[in-house]
Amino acid sequence: MRVLLIDDETDILEQAKIFLEKEDNRLDVETAGSAEEGLEMLNSSEYDAVVSDYQMPRMDGLEFLESVRKERDSDIPFIIFTGKGREEVAIKALNLGADRYLQKGGSPKSQYRVLADAVVQEVDHHRTELERERARKEWRRTFDALPDIATLISPSHEIVKINKRGAEALGMDREDIIGKKCYELVHGRDEPIEECPCTEVDETGEVDVGEVFEEKGRYYIAAASPMLDENGEVEAFAHTVRDITERKEMEEELRESEERFRSIFEGLDVAVFVVLSGEQNYGKILEVNPAAEKLLGYSRGVLVGRNILDFVSEEEEKITGTLGDGERKHFVQKKVRNDGTEIWTEVSLVPFEYGGRETHLSIQRDITERKEAEKELRKLEREKSLILESTDEIIAYHDTDHNLIWANQAYSEATGESVEEMKGRKCYEIWLGRKESCEGCPVDKALETGESERGEMSPPGEEKDWLVRGSPVRDEEGNIIGAIETTLDITERKEKQKKLDFKTGLLDDLMDNIPDIIYFKDEDARFVEVNQSKAEEVGEENRESLYGKTDFDYYPEERAEKSYKDDMRVIEEEKPVIQREERHETPEGEDYWLEATKVPRYDDEGNITGLLGISRDITERKKMEEELQKSERKFRRSFEANPDPVFLLDRDGVFVDVNQTALQVLGFEKGEIVGSSLWDAPFFPDETMKKTTERFERRKEGEEIPPYSVELETKDGERIITEVNVGKFEENGFEGEIVIARDITERKMAEERFETFFEELGDAVFVTKLDEEENGEILEVNPAAVEETGYSKEELIGMDIHDLIVGTEAEKNTRHKERLENGETVTYSNKKRRKDGSEYWDEVTITPINYGGEKAALGINHNITKRKKEKEKYKTLFNQLTDALFLESTDGRILDVNKAACELLGYDYEELMGMSVDDLVPENAPAFLPREIDKATRKGKPLETVNRRKDGTLVPIELRGRIIELEEEKRMLVSIRDITERKEAEEREEFLHSLLRHDVRNKAQVVEGYLELLRETNLSEEQEELVEKAIRGSEDGIDIIEKVRSLREISEKEKIEEINVGKIIKNVISERESQASEKGISIEYEGCECKVRGGPLLEELFSNLIENSIVHSNCEKIFISSEETEDECIITVEDNGCGIPDEIKEKIFERGFKGGDTGVSGLGMYLVKQIIESYDGGIEVKDSELGGARFDIRLKKA
């Protein structure tokens, strides 16, 4: 483990490196003399841990830590290793990201042993955390990859976690979702829904899954599972939601499909059996079609209920488990018919859900005739082998080194050697007597490319032309193991070819100028001629490359096999294929469509010689057809999914369609509406019919009709108010109108309620324009505004609201205009003038609204004239105070300040008004600081912090605040005092103490460390005694420094809190036990569970008491016990030593008193008393019944 150790004391660095590497040989320690050097080393090398001193020049340990954590964004284990520091330093270090805060002190060997253990533990922990973080990231990636909405929900229904899909579904950022109640956020309710799966799981402890229907017309499956803590209690619910609307729609389609399936099932000419596929009743027949009855010769009544395997021939091995694995199967079986005859069947098993049960469709076809044909085919295969031996074409099989393995009779005759004589020899040696293969050899190429290759060869000295083909041979794993060579004498064909060149040239010109794909194939479906379009389609640069090849050389096997069978049908049955549409896929995975035509070709004597194929690319046409179909489906989905009633009218005003929403809202059946017209619609009251038909006629004449409202009447006689929007609709030759009728009944009622509120509100209300050109024009007022201003309503409407506002108060409206345009609500006060010239103050709350389709501002004006006059009374006194005063709202908005506040922070009064107190917090302040300020203000306790002035400088302050009632509202009154001078004095004092604590203490520890290293060498008795005295002297010096530090901490008024005194005592015993054991002293402790009011110095108190007994009492046993009274906890520390004489019992607590030769600083017991008194406690010394001294310590109970 590589460790970087930083300290400004070179001696400490050298000593620490020696001790640490001796304590644990896994540690490799490198040192730096400053934080700056440490940063450079971290930038240039990798380390497993950092150990740093706190007090260092230029950059201290905390600044170094902050740089490592923030600037380098590093989480490397970081340990602060320093002299005993203040508690706030330790807290700050831990808040900045230190992993440990260890204090130097005691024996160098023991303290470096503790440090070495800490380094190893933190490195191991860090490595473990890195692995955990990797696992957490993997979990988060998996969580976010789920297609369903996934959440973790607490037992109180707060959302704890939500995945990416869930946040997208809610249309919110995850940060805005976490912590919200799920039923409030998702369902808009004040309590969980009745069918809430989390509530069900909480009650039963079992997984709950159920369907939920939403009012918006969507279906969901909601599932919840309990997540248990270590005690088996539910700590959260894993909640998933899947939108199954499409599935529900598919189920409806499936029902209709099942009806179609039944008719198809009955009409199929192949036998179909529906059989069970589960473990129980395996193979039981549930249903058959007429073709199945015909296949086996039994009626449906006999077959249903029997097992499908009962009809398998006894000599045929029955296939066990075929139906049970839920997979598609295809096999052949022999069956026995009712009349005893045996037939061969081709069986296809397809998994199928039938009536909610797991089944298979067993589709069976009688292939008895085909089996006979296959038997005949095997005979033909044997004959083919004989033909291969008797063919004139020269055929041989070579290994990858051209060694001959097999050849046919024609090969033997052509070379004049027997096959046995040629086996194992090279082909080029046999034919030409060469020592290497021929240039351009097709066999070589086939072995190299893995593809079939061919070429024409003319051996030297011969007047013959040979067509040589090489085809690779592969083993089961696809590895090339050899090649088939076929050689054909094409001398005669070459001569004929020359004669055909002229005609072929003409044909080539014709074919290459036709964009359609044209090809000719022989009787074996090999290409004999193609045009350039065909060559480009298969990726060849020239068309000659296709000659002699088949579809298997260019297309996937499935397509090539299908094409081959198709070609054979055309050739064998002599039936053409005309303009058949085919869908194919490019190598890049893109679909394309061809319109294919294939016709047989004949020679002059009428014998079939192959076929002619023509294919035309119709991809664009198919895309247009698909887009049209998608458009139709999209319209239908949109039509049915619209939450408003939608109607489709033809050109004569007749209803030709209506969506489901309209039927649900009106209560009619579809047949009652479709076919009716605007003149006799069953849901039109008379006035609606007149209004609707009149607008219909106007639209027919070309007039644009804006949306209008009409009443519709449901089948139950209820009237609803709707807003009607009409648009033209054209689709596949149909012309008409689409009508959307939105229910606005609630909106109309709300408008009526608002109008009543508007008229009866006691505060003046103004509705004004909110746009660039005419901002402030009054559009509407209520009666209270007329009464308040003295103007009539007619006079006010059309006025500019700013004409009512006095002087510069109108500028406030302008300043807040941008906030209003951003949709914010603004509150402020201004002065207005009535028609008679009198003036009054208003508190104005303005909200942006939509008024008749225009941007407007709704201003509610509350008269605060009386309140303003009362406010002026305290303003003079407020401004005369020397401390800065702030009057704040409960949310931290500044409402008022005095003159001292403006001078302290450098702001004008107007600038501070409306600011938040958070605006005064330094930008780099800890995130918790605003909370601490708010907490101190509300509790009325002083808090030392800093504020940021307008110019960016920081000022240290002491802040006090309290909550007051002002004008029946809660406000916060905060006073701030500049404590710059006090802070500077404290810093000077702290520097002097730090010099003692850090520099002097470090030097003493270095001396002690080297003395301990010296003690481990070979010394004489006299030398050992001198070293021991030097070590004790060094330890005594360090002890004095520690006690001075403790006395300073007492004066700093540490934080008092509830302390478990038993835990403190146990810690001290653990620290002092080894020291006591060295002197043969045992420490007994009865235990104490009392909680007292105290602080960290309690540990110093008991440490000094126990140390006092160990060092001065000459005892064998120290006994610690406790008892409780109503208000106090009394802890007794006593020993069986020499005791304390009565004449010095009271003196031992005096500063500087030394008890004989064993006394060191004279501060130990003085420090004990000071600590106890700082906690309002007391201490008394007595003679112990054990024979030694007894100390009773009284501490206040918490």
TrEMBL record:
UniProt protein name: histidine kinase
EC code(s) of this entry: 2.7.13.3
Keyword vocabulary terms for this entry: Coiled coil, Kinase, Phosphoprotein, Transferase
Domain Response regulatory: from-to ranges: 2-119
Entry's Gene Ontology molecular function annotations: protein histidine kinase activity
One BP term from GO: phosphorelay signal transduction system
Catalytic activity reported: ATP + protein L-histidine = ADP + protein N-phospho-L-histidine
One family name in Pfam for this protein: PAS_4
Domain PAS residue range list: 135-190, 257-316, 380-425, 631-703, 750-805, 870-940
InterPro entries hit by this protein: CheY-like_superfamily (IPR011006), HATPase_C_sf (IPR036890), HATPase_dom (IPR003594), His_kinase_dom (IPR005467), PAC (IPR001610), PAS (IPR000014), PAS-assoc_C (IPR000700), PAS-like_dom_sf (IPR035965)
Domain Histidine kinase: 995-1198
The keyword Mitochondrion belongs to this UniProt entry's keyword annotation: no
Domain PAC, chain residue ranges per copy: 203-256, 329-379, 450-502, 578-630, 706-756, 941-991
Keyword hit for Kinase: yes
Coiled-coil region list: 363-390, 614-641
Residues recorded with modification 4-aspartylphosphate: 53
